[in-house]
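Lab notebook, design round three. We kept the backbone fixed and only want residue identities now. Task for the bench partner: fill in a sequence for the structure below.
Input structure tokens:
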């Protein structure tokens, strides 16, 4: 079964939600194999030197930033969260 964030990507992409996965400190070959095995359909960005994680102060994986259409931070979550649950759905209701 796809991860919760992959499920959210699949469910809301046609409503304008854009999900990017950012891989930290691994190379293209390793990440590509993982993406293929896990059947990810969202874009995966590579950050081998860890610049993005430093800039966004990522201290745990996964870290999710939910940014609204106006470019403002709506939510930040550390670790795996139930985005498709009754608690998570309201955060996605702006779509």
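Proposed sequence:
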């Amino acid at each position: 079964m796809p991860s919760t964030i992959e499920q959210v990507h699949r469910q809301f992409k046609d409503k304008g939600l854009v999900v990017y996965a950012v891989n930290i400190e691994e190379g293209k070959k390793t990440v590509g194999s993982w993406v293929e095995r896990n059947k990810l359909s969202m874009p995966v960005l590579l950050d081998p030197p860890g610049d993005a994680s430093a800039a966004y102060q990522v201290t745990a994986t996964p870290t999710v930033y939910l940014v609204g259409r106006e470019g403002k931070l709506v939510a930040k979550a550390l670790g795996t969260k139930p985005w498709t649950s009754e608690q998570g759905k309201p955060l996605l209701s702006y779509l």
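Keep this in mind before ordering anything: The mean pLDDT is 87.
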